[in-house]
Backbone:
């Protein structure tokens, strides 16, 4: 198969694109659906990608997605059929990861995973970019691989390209977006959630600007057709002739379907754990969120809607963090603040487990070992806490007098996560 352009031509196209992407980045928040609406739920891909996930956990994942009305469940290839069976007859789609999670699998394996997922009913694919080729400037190899995958997963299958933005420069993010656009991928996605810091507002804004600049793409049965005005202009500006592949990308490629026109969209994933996280990413330009905390986000959204306390990330302070009106608090600061807050006398007893506090700026839980002690919490504060309990521990291993409710969830490290809020 012959690539559309030489690596040098790709470099010229990418450079021309970069010149117009950065001026297109906007700080103006995008519109966000009402947080307790079905449209908000439809922004969430309910995700379970840990290696030791069980069939029962996949069943639970799908059940939660059906009840909440999420856009999709995102699973590994081996759970494709089970997930499809679970969501049959609902609006929930099944998204399957391809080349997960490094993206360095050979093309034959990625093609096999893609064919398997599509043939078993998956309607969305989250494909991990081979960053090695991208970083080496081997753009033709990147294009060929992605085009081949698109050739065996034609519309209406949606394909998202996982960039792992924490490992890429801005220029490399733009390069990946250009190639994803050229092969008619539907989304560019920030992260796998398994490497680096995950999604950031800055990266989502950059990716959103890429999608706007690159404009509309035509979706067909195989890649490389129908580049429209915006992209053609960028290619022409780079001094490169606009060409389509002379032959199909695969001998038995599916026939072209009716051409549809759309723009690429952005999926934010990795570190999206709270309602505030979700709102920030949507305001930055994401239209889909990959998270394992979808149920909790929707529960928080419902509670905030009922109390009229929903606020956006435009505010200078946070209504969703550990303390209202704070923008940056470290675990040590939180612990010190809690210990010093003696008014109203609400007490909680913690054993010496690792636990972490949610904060607006954190990208991962920062666990801190706390010896057994009495901690007094000011009930004026709105606190979200996480207590990690070893898998072989019992629920009775921790007690507290100020927890109105708790929720159990599974984390990738196979420990039970108990989430609660206090100070209501």
Residues:
């Amino acid at each position: 198969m012959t690539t559309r352009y030489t690596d040098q031509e790709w470099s010229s196209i990418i450079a021309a694109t970069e010149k117009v992407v950065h001026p297109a980045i906007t700080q103006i928040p995008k519109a966000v659906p009402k947080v307790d609406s079905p449209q908000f739920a439809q922004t969430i891909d309910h995700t379970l990608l840990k290696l030791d996930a069980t069939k029962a956990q996949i069943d639970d994942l799908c059940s939660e997605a059906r009840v909440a009305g999420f856009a999709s469940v995102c699973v590994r290839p081996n759970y494709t059929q089970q997930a499809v069976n679970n969501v049959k007859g609902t609006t929930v789609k099944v998204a399957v990861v391809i080349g997960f999670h490094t993206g360095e699998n050979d093309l034959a394996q990625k093609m096999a995973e893609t064919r398997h997922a599509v043939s078993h009913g998956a309607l969305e694919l989250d494909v991990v970019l081979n960053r090695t080729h991208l970083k080496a400037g081997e753009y033709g190899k990147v294009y060929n691989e992605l085009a081949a995958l698109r050739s065996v997963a034609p519309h209406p299958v949606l394909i998202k390209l996982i960039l792992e933005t924490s490992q890429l420069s801005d220029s490399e993010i733009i390069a990946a977006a250009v190639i994803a656009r050229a092969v008619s991928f539907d989304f560019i996605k920030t992260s796998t959630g398994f490497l680096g810091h995950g999604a950031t507002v800055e990266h989502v804004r950059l990716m959103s600007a890429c999608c706007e600049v690159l404009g509309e793409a035509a979706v067909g049965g195989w890649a490389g057709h129908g580049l429209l005005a915006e992209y053609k202009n960028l290619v022409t500006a780079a001094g490169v002739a606009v060409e389509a592949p002379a032959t199909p990308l695969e001998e038995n490629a599916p026939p072209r379907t009716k051409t549809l026109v759309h723009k690429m969209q952005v999926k934010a994933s990795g570190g999206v754990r709270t309602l505030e996280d979700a709102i920030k990413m949507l305001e930055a330009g994401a239209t889909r969120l990959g998270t394992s905390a979808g149920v909790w986000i929707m529960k928080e959204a419902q509670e905030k809607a009922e109390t009229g306390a929903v606020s956006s990330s435009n505010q200078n302070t946070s209504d969703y963090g550990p303390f209202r009106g704070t923008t940056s608090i470290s675990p040590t600061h939180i612990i010190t603040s809690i210990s010093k807050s003696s008014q109203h006398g609400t007490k909680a007893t913690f054993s010496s487990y690792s636990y972490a506090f949610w904060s607006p700026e954190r990208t991962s839980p920062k666990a801190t070992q706390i010896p057994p002690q009495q901690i007094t919490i000011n009930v004026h504060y709105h606190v979200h806490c996480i207590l990690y309990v070893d898998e072989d521990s019992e629920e009775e291993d921790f007690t507290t007098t100020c927890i109105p409710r708790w929720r159990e969830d599974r984390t990738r490290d196979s420990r039970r996560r108990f989430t609660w809020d206090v100070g209501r």
The CA atoms of residues 196 and 423 lie 33 Å apart. Residues 218-228, 244-260, 311-424 have pLDDT under 50 and may be disordered. The domain at 7-300 is CATH 3.20.20.70 (TIM Barrel).
